[in-house]
Amino acid sequence: PQDSEDAKTFVHAFLKRSMPKMNNEAIQEMLTRKAVVLEHYPKKKTKQKRKKTKGFTAKQRRELRLFEIEPEQQRYAIFLPLHELWKQYIRDLCHGLKPDVQPHMIQSKLLKADLHGAIVTVTKSKCPSYVGITGIILQEFKHVFKIITKEDKLKVVPKLNNVFSLELDGFISYIYGSKFLLRASERSAKKFKLKGTIDL
């Protein structure tokens, strides 16, 4: 243990190192007080606020025509490679569409799958003019499918009150549009309940 003189010498030397700008008289004056407060103030780190990337509003997207397909691009042949990619995507998703695979397993995967590039046919509809429309799905929105037909015509088909069918490797699946009123991104996260089919 140190005696009082050693302790004073140690504190004096410590203060001299800590506050080199202070002279001996000022240090001695501080030692006469009971409490010694070291004049050290750490700099506060200022947190940089992250700027949120602001996307376009729905009105701006309409004005910029982001989702419109130019007339010269509305050709069935252009999108056939997209359909081939979609078929490979579904085969990989379902681990191959083999005959021994249970249909409800494939159906559950198709419910959440991306349908851009799929060839669909309107099999039932409350509006007879929609029945028989066949083509590749170019765009899927919450309420409609945009389909390009073999006649190079772009059709906007509502999901409501329509039944669609798609066929791949002999497996035929039916989509009840009234139960499909979701965006593709929302549908991938939704849990579908297995219920009996509902007629129009």
Notes on the structure:
The structure is a single chain. The chain is 29% helix and 19% strand. With 200 residues, the protein is α+β, with helices and mostly antiparallel strands. A hairpin with a 3-residue loop joins strand 2 (134-140) and strand 3. The longest helix is centred in the first third of the chain and has 15 residues, at 4-18. The protein is elongated and about 105 Å long. The model has no long low-confidence stretch (mean pLDDT 81). The chain has a domain at 73-189: Ribonuclease P/MRP, subunit p29 (SH3 type barrels, Roll).
Strand content: 15-25%
The strands making up the biggest β-sheet line up spatially as: 4-3-2-1-5-6
CATH first level of the domain at 73-189: which class? Mainly Beta
Count of DSSP helices? 6
CATH superfamily of the domain at 73-189: Ribonuclease P/MRP, subunit p29
CATH architecture call of the domain at 73-189: Roll
Mean pLDDT across every amino acid position: 81
In helices, the fraction of residues equals 25-40%
The protein's oligomeric status is single chain
Through-space gap between termini: 95 Å
**In angstroms, what is the radius of gyration?**
36 Å
Give a quick precis of the structure.
This protein is of the alpha+beta class and 200 residues long.
